[in-house]
Amino acid sequence: MKNGTPAVASNFSEWRWWPVLVHSARTAIAAVASLFVARLFRLPEAYWAPITTLVITQSSLGSALAVSRNRFVGTVLGAAVGAFTASYFGPNLLVFGASVFILGLLIAAVHPDRSAYRFAGVTLAIVLLVPRAGPAWRIALHRFTEVCIGIGVALLLTVVWPEEEEIPPGRT
Question: Is 5 helix (H, G, I), strand (E, B) or coil?
Answer without folding.
Answer: strand
